[in-house]
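Aim 2, interim progress. The first record below pairs a target sequence with its structure tokens.
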Amino acid sequence: MGATPAWPPSSLPRLFVAAPLAAGTAVTLDGAPANYLGKVLRLAPGAQLKLFDDVTGEWLAEIAEAGKRRVTLTIVEQLRPREPVPDLWLLFAPLKRDPIDWLVEKATELGVARLLPVVTRRTIVDRVNLDRLRANSIEAAEQCERTALPFLDAPEKLTTMLRAWPADRILFFADETGGEPFATAAAAGGGRAAILIGPEGGFTDEERSAIRALPQARGVALGPRILRAETAALAAAAVWMAAAGDWTASPTR
């Protein structure tokens, strides 16, 4: 006898909704989500899908009504609670549109808890479209089955960030002048951590001195090659996740 197939199947459509979910309640979608379900996927009443809300976890839902501009769903049952998230912040200098979109998308997939754009002396971009970045993050979470979204901060100056740095969080900063191998530092660090990646032109000498003056800061090296800023950010996040994050945990489903 063959194995009983998993239910609900992983192939069900999956969407984020910005409202707490609960069994038996109704959710109405309009705009892009309704268009996606009704016109793109052509789902009819009775079709099922998965929803998550970044608060209570993931839920099975069923379409009750499907109109041209609005879809009403009934929440059937909870599938998973909100996932525990490794306490990793990723700080990075704002980049041009394509690289920063890619960085946010992949950092979401890797499980980063918080994303903080940091403005440095050599930062080449002075504006960040937070709405677009959040949309990229949501889409990535929908695809990779995260039930928790990373918190996305507004850009902040490096000097301001350093003055308010929490006393109980390690700050690993990628120092192009050298430092402890990050794989070693990440394995020994544990706990609450953050990774700081500089702009394409690197930190100035004054910035580097200010960072090193922070008691919680530890300069680290990311290998012998010069990495693009977005590559360095994601490589560092992956190394930390492998050493101190949730990559060794067994799947819950």
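The second target in this work package is listed in the same format:
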Amino acid sequence: PVQICDRLCERGIQSVIIEGGAKTLKSFIEAGLWDEARIFTGPKPLKSGIKSPPIHGKEVSRTQIGNDLLRILRND
């Protein structure tokens, strides 16, 4: 993730949306290379599959959208 961010910075790119699998997201989270996370949670918990990586930050927004909850976290 650091090398990716370095290359993007060299090209003048300062904003990137990471939409990856759990392993990709975890690598950016663990490296501290995130400013904002948008987390959608549905009303029914999933019983199987790959768990999302843990992320901790300051919750700045919580919005109900239909049956889903959108939480916005910022990296401290």
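Residues 2-74 form a domain with the Dihydrofolate Reductase, subunit A fold (CATH 3.40.430.10). This observation will shape the mutagenesis plan for the next reporting period.
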